[in-house]
From TrEMBL:
Pfam families from the UniProt entry: Aminotran_4
GO annotations of cellular component type: cytosol
Identification of the protein by name: Branched-chain-amino-acid aminotransferase
Protein's organism: Vreelandella zhuhanensis
EC number: 2.6.1.42
Pathway named in the protein's UniProt entry: Amino-acid biosynthesis; L-leucine biosynthesis; L-leucine from 3-methyl-2-oxobutanoate: step 4/4; Amino-acid biosynthesis; L-valine biosynthesis; L-valine from pyruvate: step 4/4; Amino-acid biosynthesis; L-isoleucine biosynthesis; L-isoleucine from 2-oxobutanoate: step 4/4; Cofactor biosynthesis; tetrahydrofolate biosynthesis; 4-aminobenzoate from chorismate: step 2/2
Protein task: Involved in the biosynthesis of p-aminobenzoate (PABA), a precursor of tetrahydrofolate. Converts 4-amino-4-deoxychorismate into 4-aminobenzoate (PABA) and pyruvate. Acts on leucine, isoleucine and valine.
PROSITE patterns: AA_TRANSFER_CLASS_4 (PS00770)
Amino acid sequence: LYDRDGWIWQDGEWLPWREATTHLLTHTLHYGMGCFEGVRAYEGPSGTHLFRVAEHTRRLLDSAHALDMPLAFTANDLIEAQRDCLKKNALTNAYLKPTVYFGAEGMGLRAKGLTVHAMIAAWDLGDYISPEAASIGLRALTSSWARHHVNVSLCRAKTNGHYVNSMLALNTAVKAGFDETIMLDTEGYVAEASAANIFLLRDGVLHTPEVTSCLQGITRDSVIRLAREVLKLDVQERRITRDELYTADEAFLTGTAAEILPLRELDGRHVGARAGAPPPTQPIADDSVTAQLQRLYRRVVRGETGNELQAFSGWLTPV
Ligand code: PMP
């Protein structure tokens, strides 16, 4: 990942990719206190656009504020830097990772005078999930690791250290032969996947866990709005139990990188079997709500806004 050409933005300067290093005593490396975003840019008929960059940048600044990491850059500075990052690296279909971290001015939890830094790296993502993979979806295992709790951590902040918990859960599932993991909160209710939110459809109504243990995903919000405003579906945010996933008509995961991925099997149960869904090895039905949302989402992120999608053109920022 590091031996390549390109430019990385750090605190307003451009560093050649190979020289974009940091000191070994960087505080965030030792204690995991920092925050980041994952943002996407897409190439569409009217050029390259960042997707919901204002919302991602706001979440980054909210995370930094909640973690008490005062940052010297405004939202506009960071949005401008993300656009420049794409231009300088000649990227179109890309993934950007703005990150806020502490410097190396001190060690230990009581370190004083730590400087707060920001960086943005971006790379080509191409077709991250092929259309076939997006249609086949995932087989998942419910994790024995509980997801974060509001009195243990800041669940709304996208904190670097949170991902230890995600990786413990994901790696256990992958080693056992699954594609993903579904994590429950400390009380046993469904929270989210390792790095994606979760939805289920039952009798034409969409349900997704309320934002307590799960991240307040921006794709989650996009899907809720598309479902309500375009597909005219009822969407409920509430506590969900794992048996509701087993018996759902459809289920899917949402995230910036993954977009919308069907959840086809959970703990050996074929999700949607009783509603007549194709077996987990076959593509999902074209007329399923999951497939309809996938098609709408792909059009919106690429700026292929027809009449019914006009309301969402504000989600795109031209590069
Ligand atoms: N939950 C977690 C833990 C994540 O890391 C992500 C990815 N950022 C999501 C949910 C989905 O959030 P978003 O749609 O904003 O990418």
